[in-house]
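Predict the 3D structure for this chain.
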Amino acid sequence: MRRAVEAAIDLGIRSLAVYAFSTENWSRPVDEVADLMEIFGETIERELPDLAEQGVRTRFIGRRDRVPETLRAQMEHLE
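Done. Predicted structure below.
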């Protein structure tokens, strides 16, 4: 994803939507969903602050009510 975002920056693309987690993914095994949420949180910590410094504005769209509170807080902080 990072390469796609950086390529969009280089190409002057001003808006990019990335589809990351569908409602169907919630029907995966509980441990798998938890692992995906953990990866999502790690990605927010590792990748997105640097992109924000490059002028990338992040918006998380969709339902957040099933997302763990710690991840929701990370999302809100980044936005």
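Helices lie at 2-11, 30-46, 48-53, 69-78.
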